[in-house]
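Give me the fold.
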Amino acid sequence: MTGDHRFSPFAPELLMMNSRNRSRVQELMTWAGYLAAVASLISIMVVVGWILDITILKQVLPGLVSMKINTAVCIGVLGTSLWYWIWLQQTNQDQRIQSARLVLIGAALITVLIGLLTTLQYFFNTNYGIDELLAKDDTSVISTSSPGRMAINTSITFIILGLSWLLLGIQRQTNRAFYLLQGLATTGGFISLLGLLGYAYNVQTFYGLSSYTKMALHTAIAFFLLSISCLLATADRGWMAEFVSDYAGGVMTRRLMLYAMLLPLIIGWIILSGFRLNAFNSAMGIALFVVINMVILAISISLVSRQLNSVDRERQRSADRTRQLYQDLAVKAQLLEETNQSLQQEIFDRQRAEESKAELQQLLTQLKETQIKLVQSEKMSSLGQLVAGIAHEINNPINFIYGNILPADQYIKDLIELINLYQEEFEQVPLEIEDKIAEIDLEFVAEDLPKLLGSMKVGAERVCDLVKSLRIFSRLDESESKSVNLHECIDSTLTILRHNLKDRVGRSRIVVTKSYGQLPEIECYPGPLNQVFMNLLVNAIDALEERDQHRSFAESQDQPSQIEIITELLKPDSLNHSWVRIRIRDNGPGIEPTTLEKLFDPFFTTKPVGKGTGLGLSISHQIIVEKHHGQLMCNSIVGEGSEFVIEIPVKQTASLKADMPLAANVS
């Protein structure tokens, strides 16, 4: 398959694909060809049924909806074109790939056109004469609103799958196009799956709308086969590439996907059948669901507990390493102290006490600074690992919850609609049911339950945003320079500090204003840079909170505390280096000029004892100046506020110096 654009050596999914992955992709493509061939065979049998007027070929079983001939032709066109494309891919016939793409595009245009025209016929209640163009039909056919006209959900599925085929036929595609292609194919598969469930559960709404023509059973089967075939044929790109990968996510998805899809369908069908056969009552059905959920929950808790124990063991090992580091530093400090005493005595004997004392004092200061920085670095590294582990553990269950909210909402709407239909059809309700309706306040439940699910969705989305921010911020131990989105780093830090910005007793919330410019990705050390943003924002919040302690709540409402973050791209300097500027300003009390001079000195702090170490700004200055070859400056006016200005280059090059003159004009 080397002739296909999907196997470009620059595709990011393929860079990590080993021989086992490729073998798996080849096997999935073979199955895709089989499924496309089966769908084509179904369409051929239906066409033969229409030509020879064989009812069983058109309806499968007596009393079911028949597949219309134009539906069969479109399914045959889609299935045959996809099978032809897959066959050329597997036989490495590169010279004929272009013809396969044209066939895919042609099939897509035909099905999209027919599906669109049929949909317009339903929408405008008209007839364009395409329904009985190939064969005559009559209105006596079961669930047929117009002779020969396919169902409206069938026409919509043709439009969706046709667009997928069109994207597959395009020669040059971005990876985003494959996400769209697979999303369309999944949507078509979902519509067909609804039809199959409608027949399995005898829910007519799933395979037809109102009095319109209904989707036939074998139409739903053919659509489902085509959707799965399209997904398997593009398994090396898009989100399907993660499905076939050998990473933990891919392995877990492959192991759980079939279980997650089939088990609810089978259990639901069994319980529904039991209801209909009066094998058990609703209480027993609910009990079955409860037992199954308990089992699944127990298994999930066991897996999460196992991983949490692993994280805890790693944390314990980190703590042991930290204690060992403290002990080693204490021993080295003791040794240095003894060496210091010996040197002082020797220097005193040589009558150079003053000069040696200054030199030794500087050495001790550097040692103390290095010792505290090492401890701080180890703490931040352990914190980053712990935050990353927690974010990972939260991410999986919240994805399960968020992914099931929309289906649960739809199921609840369907159940409420079904209850309303029962109430409309059976006006005389037994007294026992009326009492139960009054007891549970059915009207309130039907109104409040969708709102409850909506609030659950909002909460799940907020947890997802927090997990994303934790995963971005947890890159504190990354030692390599890489290109990152600077705005994502700032936003992740703000998300972590969101609690500190909210309303508190006696103080209104701190308002954060962001004015982001158009920035390229910045080559930097993301972990240390996140630490700089954290230090500067925490200092601004502390200054505003200290000022608000001396103001009334009304004053803080009239003149709220504010933090403004501004990013901008500077014009290239004389050496053609591009720079970015980040400004973090507040409307706090400001900084005294005498304090401003010593602001970046190690161990200098104006905070109470126990609240600050005096290393935050010093470490931040070192990260910006020494690690990123930039500048960190502070401008402050007492009574009006303070502003910290960070200027770093877009690209880290060997020719950059910390004292290099920076550009002053905003591009």
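The radius of gyration is 34 Å.
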